[in-house]
Specification:
Structural class: alpha+beta
Distance between the termini: 58 Å
Radius of gyration: 19 Å
Number of strands: 3
Largest sheet: 3 strands, antiparallel
Helix content: 25-40%
Number of helices: 3
Length: 76
């Protein structure tokens, strides 16, 4: 994808490999959930920077399974 400041709903769906559909984006806009968007007339655009921030906000961090357990005690 070419570096752009804004993406259309179709481009956002493509960015997320169609796991988020254009219809889902439309529903989210109506409910005011999901990624931020800009509406200019009839055009609905998603700022790429806001999508990147939304990705970071929704990133799930996993712990290393080899690290010591927080609940485990090694005291004797």
């Amino acid at each position: 994808m070419v570096d752009r400041m804004y993406l259309t709903a179709e481009e956002v769906a493509e960015r997320y490999r169609e796991t988020i559909s254009v219809g889902t984006l439309r529903n989210w806009r109506a409910m005011r959930v999901g990624p931020p968007f800009v509406k200019i007339g009839k055009a609905v655009l998603y700022p790429v920077k806001a999508l990147d921030e939304w990705d970071m906000k929704n990133t799930v961090t996993c712990r290393d399974r080899r690290s010591p357990s927080v609940t485990g005690s090694t005291e004797s």
